[in-house]
Amino acid sequence: MALLTKAQINSAVDRKWEDVPVPEWGEGAEVRLMELTAADRGYIEAGSVVANGQNPAIKVESLKTYREKLVGMSMVDATFERLYSNKEILAGELGKKSGAVIERLAAKVQELSKMGRFAVKEAEGNSAADPSGSSDSD
Fold first, then answer.
1. d(CA 44, CA 46)
2. Average pLDDT, whole number, for the chain?
3. pTM of full prediction above 0.85
4. Is the four-CA dihedral 4, 112, 48, 86 of positive or negative sign?
5. Nearest Cα to 72, choosing from 101, 49, 51?
6. Would you state the pLDDT for residue 123?
7. What are the tens digits of pLDDT across the range 44-78?
8. Which fold has domain 17-113?
9. How far apart are CA 49 and CA 58, in angstroms?
10. Residue 41: how many CA atoms within 13 Å on its side-chain side?
11. CA quadruple 51, 117, 99, 31: dihedral, nearest 10
12. Domain boundaries, the chain
């Protein structure tokens, strides 16, 4: 098997997406949800974790908007461009929508992104032996 080049990696289309019905927003209404990028997922997760020694109150605001971040960062248009900017998400645009709808869409984002209860189990490959040829140097 040939090793990939950086250009091949960067050009690979590796994010899944799904059009999800949202009848609450109109007859026949759908939104397109796309698997989170590694950067967006890191941003969301970092904002939701309290590190040792941090005041838990600092992260409460991040946890309050966790679902809206998931949905807002994954909702794209027909050309796969995000519908909501980070600024719009933080301003609470999606927080004004039905909690049940946002919860349902957030669960779909978690499924697409293999997060939460949809995370890949250790038994599915995380327990493999170290690859040969690895090095301790950076």
1. 6
2. 83
3. no
4. positive
5. 101
6. 35
7. 877 666 656 666 554 555 667 889 999 999 999 99
8. rbstp2171 (3.30.2220)
9. 10
10. 15
11. 110
12. 17-113
Tokens of 45: 């997760």
CA–CA gap between residue 35 and residue 75 (Å, rounded): 9
Q: Residues near 106 by Cβ (< 8 Å), separated by ≥ 6?
A: 66, 67, 70, 71
Q: Name the phi and psi angles at 102, rounded to 5.
A: -65, -40
Report CA torsion sign: 62, 68, 70, 72: negative
Paired sense of beta strands 75-76 and 17-21, if any:
unpaired
The three-state (H, E, C) secondary structure of the chain, written as one string: CCCCCHHHHHHCCCCCEEEEECHHHCCCCEEEEECCCHHHHHHHHHCCCCCCCCCCHHHHHHHHCHHHHHHHHHEECCCCCECCCHHHHHCCCHHHCCHHHHHHHHHHHHHHHCCHHHCCCHHHCCCCCCCCCCCCCC
Please give the structure tokens belonging to residue 14.
């590796």
Q: How far apart are CA 128 and CA 63, in angstroms?
A: 34
Token pair listed for 74: 């994954």
- Return the pLDDT at 46: 77
Residue with tokens 């971040």: 69
